[in-house]
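Sanity check record (used in CI):
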Amino acid sequence: MVRALSRARSLLDGIPHPRRRAASSYVSGHGAEDAVAGYVRMLSGGVRPDAYTFPSLLKAVAAARGAAAEAIGGAVHAHVVKFGMESNAHAASSLIVMYAARGDGAAARAVLEAACPVSGGGAPVMWNALISGHNRSGQFGLSCCSFVDMARASAMATAVTYVSVLSACGKRKDLLLGMQVHKRVLESGVLPDQRVENVLVDMYAECGDMDAAWVLFDGMKVRSMASWTSVISGLVRSGQVDRARDLFDHMPERDTIAWTAMIDGYVQVGRFRDALETFRYMQFCKVRADEFTMVSVVTACAQLGALETGEWARIYMGRLGIKMDVFVGNALIDMYSKCGSIERALDIFKDMHNRDKFTWTAIILGLAVNGRGEEAIDTFYRMLRALQAPDEVTFVGVLTACTHTGLVDKGREFFLSMTKAYNISPTVVHYGCLIDVLGRAGKLKEALDTIIEMPMKPNSTIWGTLLAACRVHGNSEIGELAAERLLELDPDNSTAYILLSNMYAKSNRWKDVRRIRQIIMEKGIKKEPGCSMIEMNGIIHEFVAADRSHPMSKEIYSKLEKVLTDLRNAGYVPDVTEVLVEVTEEEKQKVLYWHSEKLAVTFALLTSESNIIIRIVKNLRMCLDCHSAIKLISKLYGREVIVRDRTRFHHFKHGSCSCKDYW
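Expected output for DYW domain-containing protein:
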């Protein structure tokens, strides 16, 4: 492409004075390469360009990118001047759009000002070109400023002007200017104009003023698909998802954009199952999805751990020829990583020809949380060699990798390099990662000192991370301090009491264990209900502790009894240290036996083939007893089990876990 443009430019610069004749058909309807070559042929044939030639040519050149394309744009501009077309409104407007769309606002404005004296002080078409060109380059602030300048120049705004500037107001959330433009619209007499009405609704919805958006929408005599979708999207952004769904269900017809807005709305508020149900309904209604739809669908699969549905989504995209752009690729990497299928995530990564920093960050995070820390760090260095600059999230992945591989010195090095080498200020999340690195290595005093020296106030996650490390390493002194600070921030945090009780039990401080349990009873602290999800044949099954609502409950509990018998015969002894209710030992054991992840694993043993990996998503940190039990299940039944809990991944295989019993 670059060579072809350069060759065309050389030909263009060498053309002598052509003969007269209009022939815009030489350059219209083509890409930049063909358009420039057509223009060269036109000049070589002695045909003189007219007012309609340059707009077509400049439109094609404006769509091209790169240094060569910019040079060709400059050469075409020179020909506009050469043939005396610089004051022609159509040619000048095309030049303005070309420059503004490339982000060269100064050149665009210079063309406008050069043409204005001859065209009566500023033809609306040229101002419209400037505003829309800035919109195309994402410089919405310049769009708004250009509209203000247009008003000062007393140029007559048209419906096209209002559509462009209101769109810019919405994108930059400039409600004040949007309201002022709305007033001008009412005074101008352009209404009723459906394009303007649609963009007004969209502007108010984008700016979060749903009352104003609704009043305009409700008063429209004719509502287009765009206006319906704008209100639905605005309601979703404001958290009114159920109201958005009610409006969606009343749409006379729905296009892909409307379906995508609704699916993405569910994803944004964490209602991932509703998102997938809506997508299935979309398929039932025979509406074709696009790449934007699929990013939302794949994201929902990632959060649910729905690997089968995610796989189907990838096949669906291939079958329908949906564009596999960098956004879809990044979403697939994230989905496979969060489903514990890191090899497939790596396959997607290797097949991606275009990678941005989010691509690299996604695979680094995926490798890190799946226990492949050394590969994550190697990939980070590959990212640097590819001249991609890391961001805050990238360093979360790198520090997490150091945690899983026990690389304390490397973790410190990466943490310090954030500010020194990359000018990135560590957030509380990065400090949490560093505390985890130090805590896992048993460097609890250094971890505590790091917390004390933090430039921001430590949150409950920071203290919880230190407390968990103290539980593993049996450091009651620092652990008690961490628990005290944690409970100051979150007095009803049941996990803090569980970890503290566990730490005391490990140190045989049974009096303190009883004291903690008494505090829990007196304060009436309730443990957050555990919930485990598992996908089987494309259907998400959800279990809570002691759950008997599942259609197969009778078979599940019967199978669980057999599994527990096998475990006991293999030496399993229930670990009741995390059961904080005052009941008999037998009752405590029953509480453990019926934990949600044990029910989910048992369901999988009943319903899946022996070669299928069991994948579970748990909403809480996994308890000690379930961890021990599933390790033994993986050995006795020869099954690989992957559990994603609140803190990390656990890959159980042959009786061991990837977390090395630290979580």
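The first helix runs from residue 2 to 13. If this sentence no longer matches the regenerated tokens, the check is flagged for review.
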